Amino acid sequence: MSSWREAYFNYKDLDDPVERHFFRRSLEFSKSEPLEDVYELALLLKSVQGDRDEWYYRGQRDADWTIRPSLFRYDVGDVDQEIRKLSSLVRHLQSELQVSQEDALAIAKHYSGVLENTAVRSWLLDVTTEPLVACFFASYNSNPEDVGRVCLFKSYEMDRYSSSTPKRLGEVRFISPSDVSRIERQRAAFIDGAHPDLLEGYLPLNWRFHQKEDVVFSDPDLAITEEELLWVEDEYREIIHNWEEDVWPEDIPPSKMVTPPHNPTEPVTPVDYLSTVKEWLADMDENYEDLNDDDQQRIRDLCQIHSEMRDSDEISMSLKSEITLKQIVSFVVGFAQQKDRKISFDDIVSRYWHESGGPETDRQAVKQIISNVRPSHEFTRSWDNRYS
Known about the structure:
FRG domain-containing protein; 2 domains; globular; FRG-dom; 15 helices; 9% strand
C-alpha cells in the first residue's frame, strides 16, 4: 500500500460488500493512536463506523485543544462585550432573514468567520453529522507538527446523562437550521446547553492522527472540498458585512440581549451535581427526600467527591464525566434496592476503584479526594497499583 489516501479511495470504489470486507481485512491499521494520517482515520471511520443517526462529530486541528465554545475559551477578554456583539448580530439576522432566535444564533456562529474586523464568539459548539467532514476540518490549515483529532458526541447519551430541566449540567440541545446552504453542505449542527466545563465528559470516543504537511482530507465525489465546504453565499456575506459596517457598535437594550444558558464564570459545584442526581434517583423510583439522613449524606458525599475530581488535573476526563457519575449512582443505589438495605459508602469507593483502573487515571489522586471528603474512611483495597 503506497499511502492511506490511495487505500481510502480504493476502498470507496468497491461496490461489493464482500469485496469491501476482504479489502478491509487486508489492511493493517495503526495499533495505537495517533494514527498515521487523516486518510487512515477517514478509512477507519468509513469502514467501521458506518452511518449512525444522532451521532455528531467535531474535528480539531490540535488534539490538545479543549472542547469549549469560542465564547468560553481562555483568551476571551470581556465576555459581556462579546455577548453584546453577538446579540447585535443575532437581532440583525432575525430582522433580515425572518428566522427564529435559535436559528439566528446558529447562523451567527457559522458565518462569523467571514467578518473582516469584528470577531463574534458564541456559546454554541459546532459539530457535523458527517465524520468525513470532521476529517476535513481536523486537517485543514493544520501544523504538520501537531496531532489532530476527531471527537464523537452521541446525542441520545447526552440526553440520558444530562438533566431534563435547564439546570447547570444540562439540558443539551442540537440546533440545525434548514435551508441554509453552507450549513447543509457541512452537514452542520450546533450543541447548545450544558456548562462548558462539562462538554468534554460526554465524549465516548476520540480518534487522533498525525498531521502531515499539505495533507488535508478531501473527497470531491462527496462534495468534501475547501471550495464546497467554505464557500459563502453572497446573500449571507452581504447581510453580515452590512451589520459589521453599518450596525455595530450599537447600544443593545436589555430586552434584546441573548444570553448563554449557563454562566461559565461560576464553577460546577456539588449542589449542581446533586440536583441532577436527584432526577436520576427519581427515574430509579427512589425519591431523594424519602431517603434517611445517612443515605442522603452518602449521596451528598458522592457529589462532593465528583465535584472535587472535576477540578483535578491528575484524573482522566472519562472518570470525572457525568457518564461515570450516573453509572456509579445506578450501581450503588440499584444494589442497595436489590438487597433491601442502606446505600453503602464502601460501594461508592469500590466503584471508583474499579472505574479508575485505566492508564490515564491516577488512583492515588482519587483516593486522596475520597479521604478529603471522608477523613475517617478505612480503605479495604490496596490503591498502590494504578492498573490492577
